[in-house]
């Protein structure tokens, strides 16, 4: 059943068969742990595959009617007492629960389980000891809570927002510390509540600053990256009050060799999100920040030339995140006249990076080609005279021709049409 769910989910998700399969699977959760673990994995695979079938109304009704009973069965399974010292069943049960909540289209279900997970977390913190299982349970509950809140984006009530925020900050005070799981929950709150998070920004920044000092805890640092991105997007111009401290932290991370190079790439995404939030107030950071981009370009080009197999994944991440970040910065500052000379001066290096990393021999992804073309066309559109001397029309023509091979994809088709329209008017 588990392998069928993984490789041929349609066999179990088809309403014709699922009516006779789901309940026996729920019942099988009560069997010995080795079997129950496989059923947890099966439910996880089914949840991951379910969005592919949501366009069929019969399936959607059937699936949504089963989600609640499945989650209830998994919840009971997570708290079984007959599993000895192993934590695997607990973790796999919550893995499936989180996937089920994430896959459902029902915000009512997310709201219901937000309250459930909050109560369970309160009980777990108040009554548990410091055993490994206690810690894993708390982590699982916080992860589940985070997903529920994200599912409520735009639909979270003010009372629930306040209750979740209080739960996490009181938890931080109780443990006299901060941790990644709690910060992820607050980040999800910021995403779900939007500008209303401004009410809590000053209060939460105290906790986030504490997390920033944990440079030897990669997971905590990564959660801070996520919080900076989510909170800056939600709070917009209000985030400018904290941008100095955020930028100082991000630079420290770039220079911290104990953090993995993959993790440090997220700093560039943070730069882009902060720029989009504070607009012109990002200008004081621009010159100094671009020195890091130029070092990243150089590192990327060197890796491209070396062809080292063990660096290919890192290189793809570096290219994607640099282009995503620069796209944000370009759109953030396109109307800021004072930024024009600094930006245009930097674009020379950016265009060279795009030209060399998009070469056919390096097998760039279609998505990367599309993002690079979109970025270059936007820059030409915003600063046509400033960049005229180093625009390489051959590169632009090449990017258009490459993407024309994949115009069955709507995004590719739109950017090709957009690029052709802009280039036809550009001399």
Distinctive features:
427 residues; mainly alpha; single chain
Give a verbal description of the structure:
- The protein has 427 residues and is an all-alpha fold.
- 74% of the residues lie in helices and 0% in strands.
- It is built from 22 helices and no strands.
- Helix 4 (22-28) packs parallel to helix 6, helix 13 (218-235) packs parallel to helix 16 (266-278) and helix 18 packs parallel to helix 20 (366-382).
- The chain starts with a helix and ends with a helix.
Give me the secondary-structure topology.
Blueprint: H1 2-7, H2 9-13, H3 15-18, H4 22-28, H5 33-49, H6 57-78, H7 88-103, H8 107-127, H9 132-151, H10 158-175, H11 180-193, H12 198-212, H13 218-235, H14 243-254, H15 261-264, H16 266-278, H17 286-306, H18 312-333, H19 340-357, H20 366-382, H21 393-404, H22 410-424
Helix pairs in contact: 4-6, 5-7, 6-7, 7-9, 8-9, 8-10, 9-11, 10-11, 11-13, 12-13, 13-16, 14-16, 16-18, 17-18, 17-19, 18-20, 20-21, 20-22
Q: Structural class of the secondary structure composition?
A: mainly alpha
Strand segment count: 0
Please indicate the percent range of residues in DSSP E strands (runs of 2 or more). under 5%
Give the end-to-end Cα distance, rounded to a whole number of Å: 62 Å
Please, what is the average pLDDT?
A: 93
Report on the biggest sheet. Answer: none
Total helices: the number is 22
Q: Over all CA atoms, what is the radius of gyration? A: 24 Å
* Fraction of helical residues: over 70%
Tell me the series of helices and strands, N- to C-terminal.
Answer: HHHHHHHHHHHHHHHHHHHHHH
Low-confidence stretches: none
Shape: globular
